[in-house]
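Write out the 3D structure for:
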Amino acid sequence: MRLHHMTLAIMVVAIWGVNFVVIKVGLKEIPPILLCALRFFLAAFPAVFFIKRPAAPLRMVIGFGLVMFSLQFALLFSGMYAGTTAGLASLLLQVQVFFTVLLAVLFLAEKPSVWQVVGALVSFSGIGLVAANLGGEISTYGLMLIIAAAASWGVGSLISKKIGKVDMLALVVWGSLVAWPPLLVLSFFLEQSSWNVDVISHISWLTIGAIGYMVYPVTLLGFAAWSWLFSRYPAATVAPFTLLVPIFGFGTSTLVLGESLSQWKINAAALVIAGLCINLFGSRIAIRIRPA
């Protein structure tokens, strides 16, 4: 991967890492599925009136919007609402790397290297360490929802890759247009108690700012750039960069929300990052140290 493309990938994951804290802020006043619906409604409008539909089959655009946006974020927001700290959520969601690579192997005939497999196993041990510490900072239900969100991200990445080289900003905008109606309907049935004038009228400027961050840097910029990278590189090359998300997630959650940074969290994050390094640089290092 070229250096400026690596820089773009790191910038995107930094934005996404901070976003887990932003989500926690938004969930204090708005229920999870309604928050998702608002996010994608604002990502779609008014942009959809100025950006043409991407040059891709309509069914693929609909599939992308429903899986990558509606399903993934309804599960993620609900998992965090159910009792998962921002830092741990940012780490657990990285299981999507394994789903993405596995699906690419099964359906796109991509062949991961030995180093990529080893890196995945090392990273997975970090996720296992989180699972071994279920308790006050994460519930079993929250863990299950976030793992399901990771699987949805893997499927969405595969759809994005199948779509190929299209206008990725257009794909995100039109995917958002597809995403918000089912989320709104689902929220109406599951969160109807929160649908009242009093709740809406008392939303703070902090929550409005949180929604704005989720809409513009995270959704429109982040997913457009990420999908663009996926259309140009193998899934096993791009997906591991998201393993850097927990570094930004843990750091921001500790500084902003005062979440504890216990030793087991540091160990889990270290394993995840070590797996990323093996994945990205293992083969290059092996070639350099191999005897002539």
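The mean pLDDT is 85.
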